[in-house]
Design a protein that fits this description.
This protein is α+β, with helices and mostly antiparallel strands. It is built from six helices and twelve strands.
Length: 447
């Protein structure tokens, strides 16, 4: 009985397992059928979504392209821009006008200096000695003038005596000639009186020539004035003595010696910032050798190297915006186009390119364009030579000229520190007048 029950139980279990397997297969078939139905339903939906995305992309591309064209047509085509731009300025190399050892330095990079400010001093020992020698030569020249004046006075007396002697001997010769015709005297006496007359006449001419030579040394020398000012008519510097040939030459030598001494002090010709100091205290410098540089910060401009294809609408006077990299993009300086240089950068290089030989590849050249900056804006910022910049020029207005105007000949940059009247020449004039007056007093004057 137990075996029968066990067999029945196993049969029941097998049936239940078969039934569950059948049910699971039916459920799987139902799921697969549902998936197939959903797949067939989703196919047209996916095709429609892809077309929609593609149309959106096309529309976006058209909008972007239209916007870019509108930006170019309405804005971009009226501007030319380059990042190949750099700040430039007048850089003056300070060179001594005389040789000497450096005694002291009164400024250094990167300090600012004003026009006429002392930069350094050179040893002036030799210059001072030459100046004292020139003063002695001036005194000697005044003494020579007085001697020449005295000699001239003596020669005037000699000329007068010779003139009298000529008249007397001529009168005697004429009288003896008449007496000879009457037979009162001999031929020998007439010949003697004639020889006396010719001798007196020769002495007169000799004395007259000596007087003229002496007078020429006393006459004023036709040379340019020392400085542009005029002396007081009552001053000894306006007298005949001070303007005679030898004295005037001695005065000019004195001025040259004074200038040589003055030039041992080196001053800044313009206002600006010190750069590239290349000399130390105690070093020997030669005339004309650079010792430092002064950057004229008041005359900064930008050298923008535009492509030659960007120059068609570029005109002088067009407005420009300049962004200096060191100041950031928020600091925008303003300027104007001052002119286009006469050639590309490669044309003025040390080794210009030669395209007439070998294979050739066309390369767009760059042309330097000068952008003058607003001086007020330049004074308010801190920029220097060589700073990188970005330049954008507004080329809306093309009515201007693309060529620079003919130069008017007026000075664009100048300095007055080298003019003798700008120097302390009043002290020199006093020394000149004192030397001449003292020498005249010692010699008793020239009459």
């Amino acid at each position: 009985m137990n075996d029968i029950n066990t067999q029945d139980k196993s049969n029941d279990e097998n049936k239940s397992e078969n039934e569950s397997t059948v049910e699971e297969s039916k459920e799987a078939q139902a799921v697969e059928s549902k998936k197939s139905e959903s797949t067939t339903e989703d196919k047209p939906k996916k095709k429609g979504s892809k077309a929609k995305v593609f149309s959106i992309i096309i529309i976006l591309l058209l909008i972007i392209g239209g916007g870019a064209f509108a930006y170019w047509y309405l804005y971009s085509r009226f501007y030319v821009e380059t990042e190949d731009a750099y700040v430039r300025a007048n850089i003056l190399n300070i060179t001594p006008r005389t040789s000497g050892a450096v005694l002291s330095l009164h400024t250094d990079a990167p300090e600012h200096v004003k026009a006429g400010q002392l930069l350094l001093k050179l040893d002036d020992t030799d210059a001072r000695l030459n100046f004292e020698l020139a003063k002695a030569n001036l005194s000697k020249a005044v003494q020579g003038y007085c001697r020449l004046q005295y000699s001239s006075n003596q020669l005037e007396s000699a000329v007068k005596n010779a003139s009298i002697q000529v008249r007397n001997t001529k009168r005697e010769y004429e009288r003896n000639s008449k007496l000879l015709r009457k037979g009162s005297i001999t031929r020998k006496e007439v010949d003697l009186s004639r020889d006396n007359y010719h001798s007196a006449e020769a002495s007169y001419k000799q004395a007259l020539s000596a007087l003229k030579a002496s007078k020429s040394g006393l006459s004023p020398l036709a040379l340019p004035k020392i400085g542009d000012h005029k002396y007081d008519s009552k001053s000894v510097l306006a007298s005949k003595v001070a303007n005679s040939t030898e004295v005037r030459l001695a005065r000019i030598s004195l001025v040259n010696a004074w200038l040589a001494q003055h030039r041992t002090n080196i001053y800044s010709p313009v206002s600006g910032q010190i750069a590239k100091r290349s000399v130390e205290v105690g070093e020997m410098v030669q005339a004309g050798s650079p010792v430092m540089s002064v950057v004229q910060t008041s005359s900064l401009w930008v050298k923008a190297n535009f492509k030659e294809t960007q120059l068609a609408n570029l005109r002088i006077g067009q407005e420009a915006e300049v962004i200096i990299d060191a100041l950031g993009k928020t600091a925008v300086l303003h300027g104007k186009v001052a002119g286009v240089e006469a050639g590309t950068g490669t044309a003025f290089s040390l080794i210009p390119s030669e395209n007439a030989t070998g294979n050739w590849i066309k390369i767009v050249q760059r042309v330097p364009v000068r952008i003058e900056l607003d001086p007020k804006e330049v004074a308010s910022v801190n920029i220097g030579v060589g700073y990188s910049a970005t330049v954008k020029v507004d080329v809306h207005d093309t009515s201007g000229t693309s060529l620079a105007q003919v130069s008017t000949g007026h000075a664009l940059f100048k300095t007055d520190i080298y003019k003798i009247d700008k120097l302390d020449s009043t002290g020199l004039e006093k020394q000149e007048a004192e030397i001449i007056s003292t020498t005249l007093a010692e010699t008793g004057g020239c009459h």
